Give the backbone structure.
Amino acid sequence: MARTATIERETAETKIKLTIDLDGSGNANINTGVGFLDHMLTLFAKHGFFDLSVDAKGDLEVDQHHTVEDIGICLGKAILQAMGDKQGITRYGSMILPMDETLVTVSLDLSGRYWFEDRFEFPTEKIGQFDTELVAEFWRAFASNTLMNLHVLLHHGSNSHHISEAIFKATARALRMALANDPRQTGVPSSKGTLTD
């Protein structure tokens, strides 16, 4: 069965439509109104082999926070829905990824339980017009709505753009690994028999 989902979410702060195909080819059509996030989500789709479409309108006259966080919520919900019953998935994924002077490790578990561990800091408060603190806000919203454990560790790095890019690429590749079909896996990869709580 196709592992796809579409999420539409509208609040007083944002209006978002997001579609994902977990078994795509890395095609991205991203329009969030936040240029740096468009760049990061395009990388995410490319490195995860996800086909991802995002159309978002947010209260950018306030700031970028609501838009970035709400897209994280929608992406998490879409991946959770697209996974279905998680039959046959690998479940765990991990990636150590270099980006020039930066080295990041991302490890994750599609456990049905939420945890986000953010062991990274940025040397600057902004990347262009983008607040670097929103990187953690995005991934926290994403992990809590995917119902996953997500651990992000920055080993070293001095360029904020490189740090963010490494995090998005490494998470995409770890997620691609965790979502992959394991031909030896019958049912869900858990001795409990469920990955929903």
